[in-house]
Write a structure and sequence with these properties.
5-stranded parallel β-sheet; alpha/beta; about 180 residues; cytoplasm; nucleus; nonsense-mediated mrna decay; about 50% helix; Rossmann fold; 8 helices; 5 strands; Est1/Ebs1-like
Length: about 180
């Protein structure tokens, strides 16, 4: 925890950017479709990129037919080996979000809940109470979020669970654009 505290202190955040979450959790789609943007966010030194185990499993599952997944795996392995302090792998532990009889058939919703579990674990380990974890973690996704009514019902529930836990979900392109506009 001391190392994480020191790392948070070392994140160079101009005042305008302190409004952005220090922790970013990309999903499998964000890494497969927009690896270059995730790399830039990691290289900026302004964010700590957390890679949950479920995202690594998702990349592993897709690697046979998806070049983006293979590239992401290579990149993450190289960064983990180098010991990049701005990219961390997170193990599965902690309390799970309520999944309301979710079947594994809705893989997107299942994975989002698993990512939410990781985010919850992160906020619990870093925050001293419910209030100070607000805005601490943002899930960056490859999904288009403009019209959530187009999502499956389980996916809508997962997005709602994130909102009620004060965990922001942003499309990776939108997040990147917002970050660039802040300068």
């Amino acid at each position: 925890q001391l190392e994480v505290s020191q790392l948070e202190g070392s994140l160079q955040q101009p005042k305008a950017q302190s409004a952005m979450s220090p922790y970013l959790v990309p999903d499998t789609q964000a890494l497969c479709q927009h690896l270059a943007l995730v790399k830039q966010l990691a290289a900026s030194g302004r964010f700590i990129i957390i890679i949950p185990r479920t995202v690594i499993d998702g990349l592993d599952f897709l690697k046979k037919e998806n070049a983006g997944a293979r590239d992401s795996i290579r990149y993450l392995e190289a960064e983990f080996k180098k010991g990049n302090r701005y990219i961390r792998c997170q193990k599965d532990v902690g309390k799970s979000f309520e999944r309301h009889k979710l079947k594994r058939q809705d893989l997107d919703a299942w994975n989002l809940y698993k990512i939410l579990d990781s985010c919850k674990q992160l906020t619990v380990s870093q925050g001293s109470g419910e209030d100070d974890t607000m805005g601490m973690v943002t899930i960056i996704t490859g999904f288009q979020l403009e019209d959530p009514s187009l999502f499956s019902v389980p996916m809508q529930s997962a997005v709602q669970a994130a909102a009620s836990a004060s965990i922001e979900i942003k499309n990776v392109l939108e997040f990147y654009k917002q970050w660039k506009e802040m300068g």
